Amino acid sequence: MNESLAHLPRKVVSGGMLLLDEAGRLLILKPTYKDGWEIPGGLAEAGESPWQAAHREVLEEIGLDRLAGALLSVEWRPPMEHVGDGVHFIFDGGLVTAAEAAALSLQASEIAEARFLPPEEACALLPDRLAARVRPALAVRPHGPPVYLEAGQVRGGPGFPGAQTG
Hints:
The protein has about 170 residues and is an alpha/beta fold. It has helices at about 5, 50-60, 100, 120-125, 130-140; strands at about 10-20, 25-30, 40-45, 70-75, 85-95, 110-115, 145-150, 155. The longest helix has 13 residues, at about 50-60.
C-alpha cells in the first residue's frame, strides 16, 4: 500500500432498516451482546456497502430476506471511545406482513428478543444516539427526501422541521 494511503482515516459505516408491521409498529431488537435495543442492521464489512450491510444483517438477525428500500437518513457521528467516527445509513425496509412477523427467526447468538412497538414507544427504548437518528428517518418515510444528521442534529433535508444550515 502506498504510504500516503496508509494514513487515511478509517470510518465505521453501518446500514440499518426500518421495518414496520401492518399496524404501523416499528420492529426493534434486543441484542445479547450489549445493553439496550437496536433496529435491524449493523456494521458494514470490508468492501460491503451500507445497503448490502442492511440486507445481510436483517437476514442474519431475524431471517427476513428483505432488500433495503429508499434511503431515509444518513448520520455522521463523532468518534466514541475505542471507535473512530462513523457514517450511519437508515433505509426503508417496508411493511412486514403478519405471516412474515410470525416466521421471524432470531439469531440466538446475537438477538435475545424482537418487538413491534408504536414508533414513540420503540424510540423510548433505543439508545438516545439511535433514537435521534430513527425519529427523523420515520418522519420522512415513505416518500423522503432523506434527511442528513450530524451527531443527532438535523443538518439537511428540504423543509424538515429543525433543519439547520451553515
